[in-house]
Amino acid sequence: MTDLSHVDGLLTPRSVAVIGASEDVTRIGGRPIAAMLKAGYKGRILPVNPKRETVQGLPCYADIDALPVAPDAALIAVPAKLVPETIVALGRKGCKAATLFSAGFAETGEEGEAAQRELVALAKSCGMRLLGPNTLGVYNVDIGYYGTFSSSLDTGYPLPGNIGIASQSGAFGAHLGALARDRGLGSSILMTTGNEADITVADAIRWMAQSDGIDVICTYMEAVNDAPALLDALDAARAAGKPVIALKSGRSIVGAQAAASHTASLTGDAVVADAVLRAHGAIIVRDSEAMMDIAYVASKKIFPTRDTFGVITVSGGAGIVISDEAERIGFAMPPMPTEAQTRLKAVLPYGSPVNPLDCTAQALNDPSLLEKFTRAALEEGGYGAVLCFFTYVAGSPAMSDIILKAVKPLREAYPDRIIAFCALGEPEVLKEYDDQGILIFNDPCRAARAIHAICGFRQAAPRTIPSAPPVTLPDTTPDEAGAKQILAGCGIACAPELAVQTVEEAVAAAETFGYPVVMKILSPDILHKSDIGAVKLDLGDADAVRAAYTDIGAAVAKHAPDAKVSGMLVAKQLSGGVECLMGINRDPAFGPVAVFGLGGIFVELLNDVAVQACPFDAESAREMILSIRGASILKGARGQSAVDIDALAQMLSQLSMFAAGAGDRLVSVDLNPVLALAEGAYALDAVIEMEDR
Amino acid sequence: MTDLSHVDGLLTPRSVAVIGASEDVTRIGGRPIAAMLKAGYKGRILPVNPKRETVQGLPCYADIDALPVAPDAALIAVPAKLVPETIVALGRKGCKAATLFSAGFAETGEEGEAAQRELVALAKSCGMRLLGPNTLGVYNVDIGYYGTFSSSLDTGYPLPGNIGIASQSGAFGAHLGALARDRGLGSSILMTTGNEADITVADAIRWMAQSDGIDVICTYMEAVNDAPALLDALDAARAAGKPVIALKSGRSIVGAQAAASHTASLTGDAVVADAVLRAHGAIIVRDSEAMMDIAYVASKKIFPTRDTFGVITVSGGAGIVISDEAERIGFAMPPMPTEAQTRLKAVLPYGSPVNPLDCTAQALNDPSLLEKFTRAALEEGGYGAVLCFFTYVAGSPAMSDIILKAVKPLREAYPDRIIAFCALGEPEVLKEYDDQGILIFNDPCRAARAIHAICGFRQAAPRTIPSAPPVTLPDTTPDEAGAKQILAGCGIACAPELAVQTVEEAVAAAETFGYPVVMKILSPDILHKSDIGAVKLDLGDADAVRAAYTDIGAAVAKHAPDAKVSGMLVAKQLSGGVECLMGINRDPAFGPVAVFGLGGIFVELLNDVAVQACPFDAESAREMILSIRGASILKGARGQSAVDIDALAQMLSQLSMFAAGAGDRLVSVDLNPVLALAEGAYALDAVIEMEDR
């Protein structure tokens, strides 16, 4: 088990020192104390303030050295310039973890960033870990610990419960906490990480993955500051069977350098982050409401093994609306078995027994229909989740007791299925269902989306990450032949080709391959060869090869007179198949990232690419390839024959292994086009950019 | 003003007869009476039941003839078999509009449908209009009229207010009503139309468009049963400045007949309905929650002229999340003017003055920042709508008075702008903002979506529908040359071409056009010519023309020996440009519908088409063309030159006029491909299918 004692100190302290403690309950140094007193913090609050004898009725200490014990946690609410000496004193006292509310560091510019770096180094030398700076702090409802100055508490305290929140942004994290509370959801832990100078959301996720009290983890990130730790934390959460619901904001481009290369311009870092986090089992959302909806479903700790959806309604109209939404999000709604349909048709001739199952308004006269149809959906339909659109019928005081009684045995009989109601009515009436483990939504489409996310949770098998053997790169960026040679060494197939130095060598090579052939200039200085006429296709005989040799030479002499030329490349011209592209770019957070797409409009207009952090195995590569919108083209849409997706997947995985093994000097790889044939896949062009040694 | 006296009778009756009145308040004949008594209906309730002297304390009449007055409305709650005599009696008494709760008609099959048709005819002969059958009825909160047996009232009564609901589905309509109520939204009118044997949602929308009390119209439809009336109603609502928020469910295919043709398989009728309703100003949603969100925004009756979005936050994180969502939905967030940025930067150095504007947590210490930033967004930013992410800060009792006082003058100073808060806290605190005209949401992304819908409302200019002159179709389906001749007569350009009868005529035609040319068989019996080798491209000289003539003849003799052949078509081969397709299909609700798409994968894999009901002008055609995802290809993406979109739009509009003028015998038109060139656009193939006379 990973050592998370520093997070223990932050989240479950037996004692907390408040440095800069204030009598004023609206000040940063006063709010946490007031909150803890009000919430009945089970530990010891140790105010530190040289100017006071007591603070909010508690004995106050003049300085850190005067504290009676080494505090488990320390809240630092002093001006930035006093922070270093505070840290030294805390370290001397034996404190292991401090929360740094103080702002005025990295968020203010370069100078602040330097100060922040020094602070972390200082803390490290004192044996301490830091949360923040510029953090709103943490809370742990279960022990009444409020190491936070969030004014969200002015609108009420969070409810205890099995949802944990880890947020980089303080205010957005507190918003999530308040949102949970206003919905009646229990979230015992909030940890906001601010500037993440040291401790990141990854630590919080890791801690919650190990915590007995937390079953669902919500996280908000703007930047991924420690990718390996984050992925490790996600893996730990998944291994513990706890869904992580993640919102990564920001759609900026991977980075100026990477953006210059073709494929990079298609891959915003949020897209990369989403792909990587998803591969590690995270459920990706883009707003706080969807996050809370999914957390609510997950909080019941039912993760069906089947990702199928049964819908029971008292309104045919609602059934259609829900089916429309289910289809849109890809939530399968298989029909009821035929025998069950026949049986239900006999029970209610004008209802619909298929899926959605419609009990019609007849259910008002005969409430047993609600139970019969719901039971049938669970028993005979076998759906992983059922949504009962009972709206105001379920909320009606006259009906709710009957329905509650009817649904209770179902809840018990199918402990592994999600049962949700779309219900309207007084909150107290609806709460009775919720208390029985029936999920309550007032919008059926929102319910469908949240339930779908959780039904898919167990299905997402952990990804096996292969180990990538180190690759030795040449000292400088190679030319195309050199690039292909390197890739061939890693198992990436190129079209048969030969580098030649004379026109007769070119003809000889062509004769060996058989016509038609392709010829291109070989030069590490010319990256976009066809733009200057240094590529000739469809050369059908020796004369054509000779003419092309001359023409390419002339074109290079004219357009790139200073380019270093190492000869020409003669390659067998492959035809047919489907043109794809594969590439590697460096993501500032996740390192080398592979991109796959079809050529042409799919990439250029539709941005239809899949991305994944390197390395990954062929199975993951296959998933990536099949995830693009145009994948049906590879499977043989439009009357052409299917291509060798296995070969493509193999190549993409090999490319990812190469990138992971190549280290930091690798800037980018561009295999464009890669020709996928009925059998095999070949890189027809290859550019490897690297930093010169 | 359209005569809507029958809807007046249904929605604002001074008296209502309840036929089949019941003492039992849970019965269909008892519920409405109980509801009206409870709500204090301002009119006269006239129970009719031969078996009782009184019903629920009211004097009861033995039969309709015994009623003291001709009732404005009648609620029919008797078994299906007694309905005809009831209608006759009501007509005799002078009643003009009856609500038919009784089920057992069209929804039960053919027999019921016939009975329903007879009922409408009977009612008509008695001078009456019918709501239903199989309807849940109507309510009008303002006069306490509850002509409904909906059990939604068991969970509480709707609140009075300016939102009206017209729903085909009874239960879904009542769900919408209950949803509005649970959110605290006032919706005075609900009308559910059930089987729509006579009165449809169009009547309800039309009535609400004229009603003083209703400013926002929500409508739910499964089928469009009277398209002209619906479009007329939408136009009336738009003319009255009232948004119609429409949910049309169901994704079924246009119809079996149309599905057989190529383009039809791409056009589900919900897609057609969405396009047509949108063209008539409706705001299209796909779930009840989005409907209520938008209705809430619209209920404040502020429709900004600028469709721009300013965001003010106390959390940088939330600002990013909101910006991500705004970009996704296409809600423009232009930056603040430079001078304003400079000024705000001076006020708050570590905030962000761009857009989103971030006041940071500093706003807690200095609440005036909230006002300053919000005012700047309205005054200097000039945004049509501002969203203030103040979360629990706005909900905090300590802050809410200060914020309320600060925002009030802004609300008054900018009456034409939407001001919304994302706020969390106690409902009573939040309601104070709402009472001041500040919209309150708890999720900022939902707020952005709803506000965007309303900001776009005023921008949607009414569509001018051109009048389509009648077109005379030939008696039978024409061959390609005939089809093109008909289209040419309507101004649709085809490639220069000539029908020929001999090989030498073919050569002569080719010489006239200049090579290369295309040759095809001319036969009304062969629709897919290239499949059988009856099309030859790239014919470069006279010999090639002669060979093609022979080959096509042989191919037809072999594969379609029975086809009626009228010669061959020689056409100039156009090249370059972009291949598009245009088509016409018949929609069961809206008649001829035009489809536009790019050729190839855009249509076949991506379903990237635009549809619109015919006829429409070139401006609407242009909008359609530019609305497809691949439109940038037409504008010159991927390094090729832009094509003549005006010519395409002209052609598409002409095609729509042709289709509208051609009448019911026209089954479909398929122009595939249409070649769009840098100048001009030409149909290279044309198939017109029609019913033989």
UniProtKB/TrEMBL annotation, chains A, B:
UniProt cross-references to SMART domains, sorted A to Z: CoA_binding
Pfam family, one: CoA_binding_2
Domain of life: Bacteria
Gene Ontology annotations of biological process type: tricarboxylic acid cycle
Keywords of this entry: ATP-binding, Ligase, Nucleotide-binding, Tricarboxylic acid cycle
All residue ranges annotated as the ATP-grasp domain in the record: 484-520
Gene Ontology terms for molecular function: ATP binding; ligase activity; metal ion binding
PANTHER family: BLL6376 PROTEIN, COA BINDING DOMAIN CONTAINING PROTEIN
Family statement drawn from the similarity comment of this UniProt entry: In the N-terminal section; belongs to the acetate CoA ligase alpha subunit family.
Protein name according to UniProt: Acetate--CoA ligase family protein
Organism from which the protein derives: Pontivivens nitratireducens
